[in-house]
Amino acid sequence: MQPHKAPARRTLTALACAAGLAAGSLGLWTASGTAHAATSLPAPDHVVVVVMENHAYSQVIGSSSAPYLNSLARGGAKLTASYGITHPSQPNYYALFSGSTQGVTDDSCVDPGALQEPNLASELLDAGRSWASWNESLPADGDTSCRSGNYAQKHNPWFGFGNVPTDSAYTFDEFPTDFSTLPTVSFVTPDLCSDMHDCSVATGDSWLRDNLGAYADWAQTHNSLLVVTFDEDNKLSGNRIPTVLYGQPVAAGSTSGTTYTHYDLLRTLEDLAGLSAHAGNAATASDITGIWN
To answer: Which end of the chain has a smaller Cβ tally under 10 Å, C or N?
Structure first.
């Protein structure tokens, strides 16, 4: 079932929260009856996360090759001390998605469904929220191929987990044009050219503008959020990466110099969605603060 065809659950959750119902009835609270970070984080209706590739903070932020991403940083928030976990690419994706590299140390394809550990998607689904991924150049919905043209499974950690339905992974051609039908949290994975891995910063920046610019504009007036981050740097800058957040919940022009990693971003995504569960190292990570309206 495509999540953008069944918005009723998200609508119910939003209405219930707005009405001030007891949060325990929606599973937003911990067993002790307190909400973690509820007073400091917004509750966006939709969050879209995009992971770009292999560029250091200084290669993107302030670069004339990335005018669109820098416009998002000016109109939203940038993290000036955001870091990847390790090298190469694939372990960082697993870290961001599940709070652990899951023993992955290289870019070799993980056997589809081999892992059962908690992750962002499984937590969302267990809590009655919604999840999906849209993947550029994926051969077909739910395809678990290792590599096909400019598509690489190593950038799609959800395929490594047996507790994430493969039918929640779509080709990017199916990305909704009615953004109100997006799930609670989704990831968009550009292919190896569009994500700046094989092609230039300018190419990736134009791809973001052309393919997610309309969503970013919409998010500014519809309580929604766009997150653009990178898996790792160019291996020359201490793994310091660009991370930009944009949308109505974000204070325009804000900057945070606090040190954050993929584990902190995962923790923040979990708490923005009102989840009480936290996967792996996200359990001891920190929420991103100081940038919200």
So the answer is: N
